[in-house]
Specification:
This protein has about 525 residues and is an alpha/beta fold. The protein has helices spanning about 5-10, 20-30, 50-70, 75-85, 100-105, 155-165, 185-200, 210-225, 225-230, 250-260, 280-300, 330-345, 365-380, 400-415, 425, 430-435, 445-455, 465-470, 475-490, 500-515; strands at about 40, 70, 90, 95, 110-115, 125, 130, 140-145, 145-150, 205, 235-240, 245, 265-270, 310, 315, 325, 350, 385, 390, 395-400.
Length: about 525
């Protein structure tokens, strides 16, 4: 497996403005509230597939690439690039000889650091690490009082603030909801501005058009400094594949921009099993691997060593209604198997999230979300997009569910720690002190450890029935709505150099003025 170059690991990162700029920036953006570090697993990965099964999938994926091929549509330059490395091109169909894609993938790093404007918030993606990021892409939002409605930029900004203040989230994400009140060709500027100014966690760049990816790079050069961006990864992006086996010019154009600038890309099939891939787990995993290898290989043709993430978004389908289903055993099998394939390929892995098909943050939403989150942890996921806030099959970003999910992500942190076995954990002194028939509430060991012994929700109600009833018999959605109000009411923006802010505002204003509004 490949890692970052020795030089990159040994040399201190350079900030574009030089001198003591990094130290001054760290002081300006010092962490102002408790935020958990990236999860580092101390538990083994669950591996459901045998080596024989993995060998079969890998061999079949190579056959798919060589005999069936993949389509790179409306992208003549991509076709020429594939020809230059030995692929066969027939029209827009690219057939990749066995072994070529895997050979090209070998230059992709197995881990990389995504830098935040606050160095305390940097994340390492890959290895035993798990980075959690919020929901991505819903056109609608929902809350307890306002119901379901089209998302606005004000909603978007609220979600960025909630993500910033959520202890267990490591990442600000990207399109946490789609602000439909801003023109399509300009909303990426407002979304990036929100991530850059309302939070100091790492964030994602725009992929909806190659020029918007370039805007993302240029805004990061203002925020971080041009030299720093040239030397470091400061953005992750989501590059979806049009399954089955099709790579469109828009997504590939964005990938070309990010890869050429050494910025990270999640190469992710978007699969509804039975509609966009076979109904079987083995068949779906074969297609997933073929698509991901082709996408990663293409990124490495653009720039060997460009950071990438093996992505898998897979859901099954209800064969009666045609609606996607979530939290199912089949999706869990694919999430798990794709993790094994990603580790064999030697690249970081993205999958799982707070997936559910429910219309409300109810029991269905909780069960399906829990199934998906826990399988993601056990399957070795390194970057979990949609970790909180997802509702209605991804059509809705829900405020109450956002804080409920973000709270429950704390359980993943604690499960990943595994079981301590040191002298304090063995608790022999406590067992001796209490002896037969006693209780542990007042013993020395309990007094020394009670603050950290058990994870505790910041949202759920643990009070006796009588107290709960006196306080209004509030359900979890009501408690979450109160939590949303509390967080937004106490939000304070992380400090940002006024000169940098002014330059970002000027850039956005100039870009918006340079073309007419478009809502298409």
């Amino acid at each position: 497996m490949n890692t970052m170059s020795d030089a990159a690991q040994k040399a201190p990162a350079r900030r574009g403005r030089g001198g003591g700029g990094a130290a001054r920036r760290a002081e300006r953006t010092a962490v102002s509230f408790d935020t958990a570090k990236t999860i580092e697993r101390k538990i083994p990965n669950l591996e459901m597939l045998s080596d024989e099964a993995l060998d079969i999938i890998e061999a079949n994926a190579e056959t798919v690439l060589e005999e069936i091929g993949v389509a790179f549509v409306d992208n003549p330059e991509a076709l020429e690039r594939w020809k230059s490395v030995g692929a066969s091109v027939d029209g827009e169909r690219v057939r990749i000889p066995k072994g070529l894609a895997r050979k090209l993938c070998a230059t992709a790093p197995s881990t990389f650091v995504q830098h935040a404007r606050n160095p305390e918030r940097n994340v390492t993606i890959g290895g035993d690490n798990l980075v959690l990021a919020p929901v991505y892409g819903p056109p609608f939002v929902r809350d307890k009082d306002g119901g379901r409605r089209y998302a606005t930029i004000a909603d978007f900004e609220k979600f960025v603030k909630l993500a910033y203040m959520s202890k267990w989230l490591h990442h600000s994400g990207g399109t946490v909801c789609e602000p439909t009140d801003v023109p399509v060709n300009k909303r990426h500027l407002d979304m990036l501005m929100a991530h850059m100014t309302l939070s100091d966690k790492p964030f994602m760049g725009s992929v909806t058009e190659p020029s918007r990816a370039r805007d993302s790079i240029e805004m990061c050069e203002i925020l971080f400094g041009k030299e720093f961006v040239a030397d470091n990864t400061v953005m992750t992006s989501l590059i979806n594949i049009n399954s089955p086996l099709t790579f469109d010019a828009t997504m590939m154009g964005a990938l070309e921009v990010y890869a050429s600038h050494n910025q990270a890309a999640i190469i992710s099939p978007f699969i509804v099993g039975g509609a966009m891939a076979p109904v079987s787990v083995m068949g779906t995993l074969t297609q997933v691997l073929a698509e991901v290898m082709a996408g990663i290989a293409y990124s490495q043709i653009i720039r060997p060593g460009a950071p990438v993430i093996f992505g898998t978004f897979v859901t099954s389908i209800d064969m009666n209604s045609g609606a996607p289903t979530f939290g199912t055993p089949e999706a869990a099998h694919i999430t798990n198997g794709a993790g094994q394939l990603a580790r064999r390929l030697g690249v970081p892995y993205r999958s799982a999230g707070s997936f559910n098909g429910s219309k409300l943050p109810d029991a269905q939403a909780a069960y399906e979300t829990s199934n998906s989150l826990n399988m993601g942890l056990l399957s070795g996921v390194n970057f979990m997009l949609h970790a909180c806030g997802w509702l209605e099959g991804g059509l809705v970003a829900d405020f109450e569910k956002f804080v409920l999910d973000a709270d429950q992500l704390g359980t993943l942190h604690h499960m990943a720690k595994g079981v301590e076995i040191d002298e304090n954990a063995q608790a022999m002194d406590a067992i001796r002190e209490v002896g037969p028939g006693g209780h542990y509430l007042g013993c020395a060991h309990t007094q020394a450890n009670f603050k950290t012994a058990f994870w505790r929700s910041d949202v759920f109600d643990y009070k006796p029935f009588e107290t709960w009833e006196e306080e209004g018999a509030r359900d979890s959605q009501t408690l979450a709505a109160t939590r949303v109000d509390t967080l937004l009411g106490t939000y304070v923006a992380p400090p940002l150099d006024p000169e940098i802010r002014a330059k970002l505002e000027a850039y956005v204003a100039q870009k918006k003025a340079s073309e007419p509004d478009s809502f298409m």
